[in-house]
Design brief:
The protein is α/β, with parallel strands linked by helices and 105 residues long. The protein has one domain: Oxidized Rhodanese, domain 1 (3-Layer(aba) Sandwich), CATH 3.40.250.10. The chain is built from 4 helices and 5 strands; from the N terminus they run βαβαββαβα. The protein has helices spanning 6-14, 27-32, 66-79, 90-97, and strands at residues 3-4, 20-23, 38-39, 58-61, 84-87. The model has no long low-confidence stretch (mean pLDDT 98).
Length: 105
Amino acid sequence: MKEVTVQELKQMFDSKEDFQLIDVREPYEAEICTLGGELMPVGNILDHADKISKIKTVVLHCRSGQRSKTAILNLEEKFGFKNLFNLRGGILAYASEIDHTLVKY
């Protein structure tokens, strides 16, 4: 599975790279802290496959990186996506290493 580090994601933000960021956490988690991605909870992400780009880089994240891995595997298997990347360590790693203002939960 392809992954990006939190440092690589920060660089993507800083360089204004054209990519899609998808948050596969639950709505209540996104209310605690967010990276600004589109909210598509892992439980029903397959229903949103038509909203996911097949052209540009797509980074999926969750709290720690496990649910986003599951979402990627399901999307790749069911819809043949080849452009999906998991955020290694999830939003917890981003909060620890990049943005210390994000709430860890």
